[in-house]
Amino acid sequence: MDITFDFEQPIVEIDKRVEELKKSAQEQNVDLSQQIKDLEQTSCELKQKIYGSLSSWQRIQIARHPQRPYSQDYVKLIFENFIELHGDRYFGDDPAILCGIAEFDDLPVAVIGHQKGRSLEENLDRNFGMAHPEGYRKALRIMKLAEKFNRPIITFIDTPGAYPGIAAEERGQAEAIARNLIGMSNIEVPIITVVIGEGGSGGALGIGVSNKVLCLENSYYSVISPEGCAAILFRDGSKAAEAADALKLASKDLLKLKVIDDIIKEPLGGAHYNHEKTAANIKTALSKCLKIYKGMNPKRVVQERYLRFRNMGVYEEDASKKNNKKRIKKK
């Protein structure tokens, strides 16, 4: 499926012209190399300009691209000897969350990630990456298994949110996510999370209470989708682009706010242009993080994770307010 966004149209037009010139040069046996070279240079400069100054909404569009790599793609490109594990031992299996054990450069690890589908049939099976309670319970089961055998845990976030359907609520969606938040807070092995696409609400946080949270350049991580925020705050879902800017959900904003720890570069135009290069960048970032925790005391791993979240949202009171408090105490 070839999808082009509005902001990419100027690039597409130039690339199309380059292909036409190449075809003409071949068919008519004429030298058009200089014109082709000039247009290719123009295209390269335009790509640098456009992709270097994307708005938050434009990055969200890239994060949702249907050809963007999903968790299963990264598992194949980054890990060896992956064995998928199924079921939560309470209700059933949830294909929206992929879980298993694998090797990362000969290091045994556990891998967990949201999984979307490519086709309509796959998306119906995977529920568009929106997990049910059994998905989160399965994830926590695998995390506990990893803790038992002292394996680091790597999670991939890519979901618009947890499934909000009646069946999910009846089976305890909120409780399942809350239990994961508690459980992950106390896991005594390092947890590294990579936001690879969409990172929506509690559905994302359900596998995101980690020692390190990394974010692909064109991914987003937010308490609510831009469309949902626009519908609630502006009473107009069409103002999603405005809401995206207000939410500060792009990777550069998240890093500045210390919600994430690092940004992983993507190929020019987005991860969907080069799956292998993106996977290589993620592997480098994961390797760097895992080295930090090699041999670290388990209690210290838990304490560091705790402090990471406690240090979010640090603020300073206005000096005048502090003085007013002191006067009130004296009286």
Beta-strand residue percentage: 5-15%
Which shape, going by the Cα principal axes? globular
Radius of gyration: 23 Å
Tally of contiguous helical segments: 15
The top level CATH class name of the largest domain: Alpha Beta
List the strand order in the largest sheet: 1-2-3-4-5-6-7
Oligomer: single chain
Helix content: 40-55%
The name of the CATH superfamily of the largest domain reads 2-enoyl-CoA Hydratase, Chain A, domain 1
| Biggest sheet features | 7 strands, mixed
Instruction: Quickly give the CATH architecture of the largest domain.
Output: Alpha-Beta Complex
Coarse structural class: alpha/beta
What are the secondary-structure elements, in order, as H or E?
HHHHEEEHHEHHEHEHHHEHHH
- DSSP strand tally: 7
Fill in the CATH topology of the largest domain.
2-enoyl-CoA Hydratase, Chain A, domain 1
Terminal Cα span = 72 Å
What would your notes on this structure say?
The chain has 15 helices and seven strands. It has helices spanning 9-28, 33-51, 56-63, 71-78, 120-126, 133-148, 166-170, 173-185, 201-205, 226-233, 240-247, 251-256, 275-293, 298-310, 319-330, and strands at 80-84, 97-104, 107-114, 153-159, 191-199, 212-216, 262-264. The chain has a seven-stranded mixed β-sheet. A hairpin with a 2-residue loop joins strand 2 and strand 3 (107-114). Helix 1 (9-28) packs antiparallel against helix 2 (33-51), helix 3 (56-63) crosses helix 11 (240-247) and helix 6 (133-148) runs parallel beside helix 8. The model has no long low-confidence stretch (mean pLDDT 90).
